[in-house]
Each structure stands twice: as C-alpha cells, then as structure tokens.
C-alpha cells in the first residue's frame, strides 16, 4: 500500500485536531442544553435527573414529558418537511454529503426530547452534532481524500460519544470497531486523539469524573466464573431489545403533524409511569445509578426491565429520534440486578449486586452492538471500578456475543 504524501498527512493531522476540539464543543453544548431542559422540566436546581423527578409534583411529572415531546414533535414536523434526515452511520459509511444544518437542528430536538424525560439515549445528539461540526471545520483542507473524510467523520461521532460520558477509550473504540469496523493504525490513532481532545474540552461540564458512583465494597474474584451465568440472560435480553426496536421503528420516517400528538402522548405515558418508577425517564442513567446503589427491590427491577425497552419502543414508534446505547445498557443493568436479587433471595447466595448489574449491562450491549471488547470498556469507564472487574465484564460480554453468533449465525446487529 502506497504511503500517503507528506502534505496530505499534515492536513490529516490538522483535521484530527480540529475534529477533536469541535467534538468536545458539541459534547459540551449538548450537555449544557440537556441539563437546562431537565431543570426546567422538573423544576430543580441541583443534583441528578432522578433527584429532580423525585422532588417534583405529580402534575409536573406527567405534563413535563408531554409538553417536551409535543414541542419536539412540532420541531421535527417542520424540519422533516424541509430537509431529508439520513442516518448517521449509513451516511458516513457511504461517504455521502453531510446535511450540516439539518443534523444540527435534529440534534437539538433530540436533546429537547431526552431532556424532558423520553426513554432514548442522549449520545445520538452529540455524535450527530460533532459530525456536522467536524465536516464544516475541515472543509477547507482540500488535500484530504474521501477515505480520510470518512475516518474523520467517524472520529467525530465517536469523540462526541466519549465527550458526554467522559469515556475517552470507549469513544475511540466506538469509532474504530462500531463505525469503521477496523483496526487500521491510521483510523485507530486518529480516533484516540480526537476522543481524548473531546473529553478534555467537555470536562468543563463533566469534570472528567465517571458518571456512575462505584460503591466502596469488597468484591470476590470468584465472581469472574459466575459471570458466565449472565451470558444466556444477556443474550435473551439483548436479542429481545434489538428485535423490539427494529419492530418499533416506522418503515418510513414520520413527517406529518401526527408527530406532535404522538410524541406528546408518549411523553404522557412516560410521565404517568414515573409516578411509580421515577428511574424510568431519561436515557437510563437513573437506572444504572440505583442499580449500583442497590436501591431497587426485585419487583421494581423486573418492572423496569419490562418497561424501559417498551417505553423506548413507544418513543421510536411515535417518530422520536435518539441513541439506543444507554437504553439497552440500562435494560441490561436491570436484568443483571433482577437476576442477582432473585438468586440471593431464593438460593441464599451473596452475589454483589452492582457488579452483576454492570456485567449484565455489558453483556446486553455486546449483543446489541456486536463488539464485546468495546462493550466491556464502555461499561468499565462509566463507573471506573477496580481494574480487574473489566475482565469480569469482558467474560460476560464475550460469552453473550459468542452465544449470539452460535444462535443466529450472525455477528454484529446494531440497534442504534
């Protein structure tokens, strides 16, 4: 393979720096707007979304997501009538033109919907906004090839993900393994640089701290063997989640006025459910938080395990857009916690709930995204528990992924 000309390499390196910085700006902007919308929706000043929901009135819990959904639906009705909204991954893979303005507005509407309580991932907006900004910021570099631009746009998407969750390594591997499906040094090096820069810029909002608080508890190395028990459970939950989301997505993107009542109605359903399960609204961070804090009963874990994917499917069916990573992650965490609570109650075991919960999350994510190494790293970086637990997460993720390949005869089947 011929070596790229030196001037093209200089342009590529400049573009990598620009993309990393702009992806950080995208992550910082979407995080700031998301928090503002959450605070307005549930009328709170400090703390997490779960704190705001539990402290808000019953009327606000019900009407807040409904109003936010209706406003997002109104925005998408206007946007989709005026512009085409191609999927991010397919657009980058096919090296098609980037609709910068449309993607930027769409990202803002995603933030509005998720911030008001919709059961969708928040990572879709910064990935899309970062790709739009990266394409704009590097347009003046004329020596870049189509292949270079494909790498840069994928790097922007991965760096946007890394920025909002403060997961630099997972952001880089998302670019290489999920977006580009390669270990090519040029792509991997660019991904590592852009993700690190984006996380550094966005640290103004995230403070470079893990979004989940790992409990200070002694964990036995024996759990590594027991992690394989979770693999069949993660496989079943992951396949069910993927198929439910595929069935829920409309065959054609909704573009009519129906978006307004549909998303408003979905928000109302979410608001009503939050009266009993305040962990349900949002991307799934609340579920992960209470799972690590062992703050759920068995009945609550089972209810959340059923409702989280159903509500996510409801918002998709209503025409909403957003990420699928954290909803599937939260569903896996609920499955792991339900399993450990059931085993501890029935069999008299003493399994560590937070560890099994995160292992279940890694297993489900490996099934839905098709990359067990990336799933284990992403889950580990979210909480940053003891380093050896990464191998436990990897055992569950690899086991679930291997069972999927055996059961379906296919590798990656991404849910979003």
UniProtKB/TrEMBL annotation:
Taxonomic superkingdom: Bacteria
Major location (coarse): membrane
InterPro entries listed in its UniProt record: Cl-channel_core, ClC, ClC-type_chloride_channel
Keywords: Chloride, Chloride channel, Ion channel, Ion transport, Membrane, Transmembrane, Transmembrane helix, Transport
Record flagged with keyword Glycosyltransferase: no
Record's GO cellular component terms: chloride channel complex
Membrane topology: Multi-pass membrane protein
Membrane-spanning intervals of the chain: 12-37, 62-79, 151-175, 227-246, 258-277, 297-316, 328-347, 359-380, 387-407
Signal peptide interval: none
Protein location: Membrane
Keyword Signal: no
GO molecular function, one term: chloride channel activity
UniProt name for this protein: Chloride transporter, ClC family
Organism whose genome encodes this protein: Mycobacterium parascrofulaceum ATCC BAA-614
């Amino acid at each position: 393979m011929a070596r790229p000309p030196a001037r093209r390499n200089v342009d590529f390196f400049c573009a990598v720096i620009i993309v990393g910085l702009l992806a950080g700006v995208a992550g910082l902007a979407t995080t700031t707007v998301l928090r503002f919308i959450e605070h307005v929706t549930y009328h709170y000043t400090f703390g997490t979304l779960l704190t705001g929901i539990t402290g808000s009135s019953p009327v606000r819990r019900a009407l807040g997501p409904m109003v936010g959904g209706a406003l997002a639906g109104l925005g998408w009705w206007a946007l989709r009538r005026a512009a085409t909204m191609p999927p991010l991954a397919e657009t980058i893979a096919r090296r098609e033109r980037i609709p910068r303005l449309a993607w930027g507005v769409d990202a803002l509407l995603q933030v509005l919907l998720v911030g008001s309580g919709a059961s969708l991932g928040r990572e879709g907006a910064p990935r899309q906004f970062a790709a739009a900004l990266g394409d704009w910021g590097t347009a003046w570099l004329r020596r870049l090839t189509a292949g270079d631009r494909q790498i840069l746009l994928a790097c922007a998407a991965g760096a946007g993900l890394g920025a909002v969750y403060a997961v630099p390594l997972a952001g880089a591997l998302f670019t290489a393994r999920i977006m580009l499906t390669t270990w090519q040094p040029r792509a991997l090096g660019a991904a590592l640089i852009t993700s690190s820069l984006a996380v550094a810029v966005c640290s103004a909002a995230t403070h470079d701290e893990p979004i989940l608080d790992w409990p200070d508890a002694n964990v036995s190395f024996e759990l590594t063997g027991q992690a394989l028990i979770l693999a069949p459970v993660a496989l079943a939950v992951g396949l069910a989640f993927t198929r439910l989301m595929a069935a829920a997505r409309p065959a054609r993107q909704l573009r009519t006025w129906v978006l307004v009542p549909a998303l408003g109605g979905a928000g109302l359903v979410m608001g009503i459910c939050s009266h009993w399960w305040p962990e349900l609204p949002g991307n799934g961070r609340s579920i992960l938080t209470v799972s690590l804090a062992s703050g759920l009963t068995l009945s609550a874990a089972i209810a959340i395990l059923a409702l989280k994917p159903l509500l996510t499917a409801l918002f998709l069916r209503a025409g909403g857009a957003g990420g699928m990573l954290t909803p599937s992650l939260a569903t896996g965490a609920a499955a792991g916690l339900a399993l450990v609570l059931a085993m501890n109650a029935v069999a008299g075991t003493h399994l560590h709930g937070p560890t099994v919960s995160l292992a279940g999350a890694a297993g489900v994510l490996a099934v839905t995204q098709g990359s067990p190494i990336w799933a284990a790293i992403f889950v580990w970086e979210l909480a940053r528990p003891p380093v050896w637990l990464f191998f436990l997460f990897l055992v569950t993720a690899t086991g679930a992924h291997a069972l999927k390949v055996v059961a379906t005869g296919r590798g990656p089947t991404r849910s979003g």
